[in-house]
């Protein structure tokens, strides 16, 4: 087993470190935030991720993992140092590599033995060549340091499972020594390893994520056309899924992709293409479709309602997907400000994301509207004039049409994740709008009732 250091304790670094400890390696995770380090030492995960906290506690008790702000002690005698810090998107779409540069400088000044520096962060093609040269320029001791590209393919919400049971491990190396050491480090996982050069490994990450983003945007584009021509996107997707060349994954239409990967990686690859004098038309189209799709529900509701001013608006789901507390590029962040701007009184439910969202939009009066965070879905729906579903949490899926009918003042639902059966909502007397499917209309609704529910407050 090997002595491993991990720089960064976010979704990439912490999950990697815990999983390396789980298979028997000796791991030290490094973070600059002392409070965060103390929280992790106490067995509490700073991020919401299934099974992560349990494995943190188990491996800390077994002495296989520790957390520190002292990067020198963590790096100096490590066999491999994994970099899992962020590479946030810059205004022009390029990746911000300043965090990686900082860690690389620290490594160069700390290591006293031959070691690998393994970049798990998503970086533009060619970055790891530069990182290796950067480290060489600042090396204090006469040791061999080689940089390896080892991109991660985990999905938030199932990151631990995706790491321990990955479909493949990609390693990009430039020497036999580095390749063999990486093979040995991953041997306890008993997973397929694909060994390529560094630049190919970097491109595999971008090409994989952008292909999935393309698939999502394509299905959303088709869904919008389905609505116009009277087809049902779920039937269309089911028919497509039987073709092995297409498969059944990423065929669900909705209100676009979010999170830390797809939005950033599509823009970064499109930027890389432009920098090399090439127009990556397919990826650019995926970006454009996704941007429009995020506010599709709001645009539908805006046509249906006279105003949101004074209306109680239930918002179910704030995170970009279920199973995580991550709000990055979430549809809620696009729609909530539009609703507040129109004077909506929002009652928002999310089982794990509300606290993070409240840091962006504090509870209470906000612009022309207001926002209240509730711990119970029924409290959000009670007396509501309209409901928006942005995240398909299990608690939302478990709701019956009758709950909407009995609880809401006006059973008007805009579902961005196509959770419910259109016919069942129709039979229950609920006006229901989703993505790529016909709407369910309430029958025999008096026009006066519509007007009454949409009168602006004085």
TrEMBL record:
What does the record give as its pathway? Nucleotide-sugar biosynthesis; UDP-alpha-D-glucuronate biosynthesis; UDP-alpha-D-glucuronate from UDP-alpha-D-glucose: step 1/1
- UniProt enzyme class: oxidoreductase
Asked if the keyword Ion transport belongs to this entry, the reply reads no
Superkingdom of this protein's organism:
Bacteria
GO terms (BP aspect): polysaccharide biosynthetic process; UDP-glucuronate biosynthetic process
Drop me one GO molecular function for this one.
UDP-glucose 6-dehydrogenase activity
InterPro entries (alphabetical)? 6-PGluconate_DH-like_C_sf, NAD(P)-bd_dom_sf, UDP-Glc/GDP-Man, UDP-Glc/GDP-Man_DH_C, UDP-Glc/GDP-Man_DH_C_sf, UDP-Glc/GDP-Man_DH_dimer, UDP-Glc/GDP-Man_DH_N, UDPglc_DH_bac
Q: Which residues bind substrate?
A: 205, 250-254, 258, 321
Domain spans labelled UDP-glucose/GDP-mannose dehydrogenase C-terminal = 314-422
Alphabetic keyword roster: NAD, Oxidoreductase
Reaction catalysed by this chain? Answer: UDP-alpha-D-glucose + 2 NAD(+) + H2O = UDP-alpha-D-glucuronate + 2 NADH + 3 H(+)
| Keyword tRNA processing in annotation | no
Record's family? Answer: Belongs to the UDP-glucose/GDP-mannose dehydrogenase family.
Write down what this protein is called. UDP-glucose 6-dehydrogenase
């Amino acid at each position: 087993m090997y002595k491993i250091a991990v720089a960064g304790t976010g979704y990439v670094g912490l999950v990697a470190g815990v999983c390396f400890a789980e298979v028997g390696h000796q791991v030290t995770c490094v973070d600059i935030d002392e409070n965060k380090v103390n929280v992790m030492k106490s067995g509490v995960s700073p991020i919401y991720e299934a099974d992560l906290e349990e494995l943190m506690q188990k491996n800390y008790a077994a002495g296989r993992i520790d957390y520190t702000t002292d990067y020198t002690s963590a790096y100096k005698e490590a066999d491999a140092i994994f970099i899992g810090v962020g590479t946030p998107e810059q205004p022009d779409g390029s990746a911000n590599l300043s965090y990686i540069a900082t860690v690389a400088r620290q490594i160069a000044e700390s290591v006293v033995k031959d070691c690998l520096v393994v970049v798990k962060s998503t970086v533009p093609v060619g970055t790891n060549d530069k990182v290796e040269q950067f480290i060489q320029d600042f090396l204090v001791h006469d040791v061999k340091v080689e940089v390896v590209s080892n991109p991660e393919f985990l999905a938030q919400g199932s990151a631990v499972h995706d790491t321990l049971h990955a479909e493949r491990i990609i390693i990009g190396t430039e020497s036999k020594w580095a390749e063999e050491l990486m093979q040995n480090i991953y041997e306890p996982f008993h997973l397929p390893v694909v060994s390529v050069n560094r630049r190919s490994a970097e491109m595999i990450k971008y090409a994989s994520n952008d292909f999935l983003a393309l698939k999502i945007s394509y299905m959303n584009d088709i869904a919008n056309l389905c609505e116009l021509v009277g087809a049902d996107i779920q039937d269309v997707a089911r028919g497509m899924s039987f073709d092995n060349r297409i498969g059944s994954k990423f065929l669900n239409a909705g209100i676009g992709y979010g999170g830390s990967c797809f939005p950033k990686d599509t823009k970064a690859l499109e930027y890389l293409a432009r920098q090399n004098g090439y127009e990556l038309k397919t990826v650019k189209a995926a970006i454009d479709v996704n941007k429009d799709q995020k506010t599709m529900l709001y645009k539908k509701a805006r046509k249906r309602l006279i105003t949101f001013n004074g209306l109680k608006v239930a918002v179910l789901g704030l995170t970009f997907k279920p199973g995580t507390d991550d709000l990055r590029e979430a549809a809620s962040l696009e729609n909530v400000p539009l609703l507040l701007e129109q004077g909506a009184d929002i009652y928002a439910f999310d089982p794990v994301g509300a606290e993070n969202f409240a840091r962006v939009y504090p509870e209470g009066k906000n612009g022309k509207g207001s926002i209240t965070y509730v711990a119970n879905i029924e409290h959000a729906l009670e007396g509501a004039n309209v409901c928006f579903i942005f995240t398909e949490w299990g608690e939302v899926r478990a709701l019956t049409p009758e709950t909407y009918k009995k609880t809401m003042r006006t059973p008007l639902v805009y579902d961005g994740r196509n959770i419910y059966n259109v016919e069942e909502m129709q039979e229950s007397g609920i006006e229901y709008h989703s993505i790529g499917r016909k709407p369910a209309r309430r029958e025999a609704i008096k026009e006066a009732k519509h007007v009454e529910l949409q009168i602006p407050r004085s």
